[in-house]
Amino acid sequence: MASSRFDSSSDEEAESPPTDTQPLRIDWVDLSIIGYPNSVGISQMPGCKFKNNWRNLKNDLETMTNAGIQSVYVLLTTGELRKYRASQLLDEYNSSGINVHHYPFPDGTVPTVDIVVNFIYDLKEDLGNQRKTLIHCYGGLGRSCFLVACFMLEMDESLSPDRVIDIFRSIRGAGAIQTVKQYNFIQDFRKLREIYDQSPPDEARSLSR
């Protein structure tokens, strides 16, 4: 049998743990206040093969398709995609007819403000075009929740940073928003956004925590 390009060598396969056959868990963020209920989902990385976490990409893509996912935001770096035996993941999404946005930044960190702003613009466009969207990093806890939290603060002025963090911890568990850097950025997001809007382009691109 020919092996998929997502598989490791036959020796590694013989030693690999059983593939997780549970459907990909997608947690939907309630954006009904801005008119988009159940339009943005967060999950772990589909098709991941790492340590005891081995998933079947074909099954995960089927779950995404059945959920109506039309756009996906991938936050993993190229190095992480290789590490998790999914170096062709973006191509697989494209081949499945899913629109791909790649916003890579290292696990546990935060990106510069201009990257967050561009993410917000792209997500607003997807939602405006009625595209159901999935956002994932590796575990769907840190980076994914962080970026969608910033999106919610941008879109709903009545939400406080603490309330947004509580929302994601109720959806994804206590590990959501994983690091002090991510927590502090969310607390300061609106101030950073204001500074970004008032700054020359070169200075705005360097703003981060």
Element layout with pairings:
Elements: H1 10-15, E1 27-31, E2 36-43, E3 49-50, E4 53-54, H2 57-66, E5 69-74, H3 78-83, H4 89-95, E6 99-102, H5 113-128, E7 132-136, H6 143-155, H7 161-172, H8 180-198, H9 201-205
Parallel strand pairs: 2-7, 5-6, 5-7
Antiparallel strand pairs: 1-2, 3-4
Short recap of the structure:
The chain is α/β, with parallel strands linked by helices and about 210 residues long. It has helices at about 10-15, 55-65, 80-85, 90-95, 115-130, 145-155, 160-170, 180-200, 200-205, and strands spanning about 25-30, 35-45, 50, 55, 70-75, 100, 130-135. The protein has a single domain (about 25-195), classed as Protein-Tyrosine Phosphatase, Chain A.
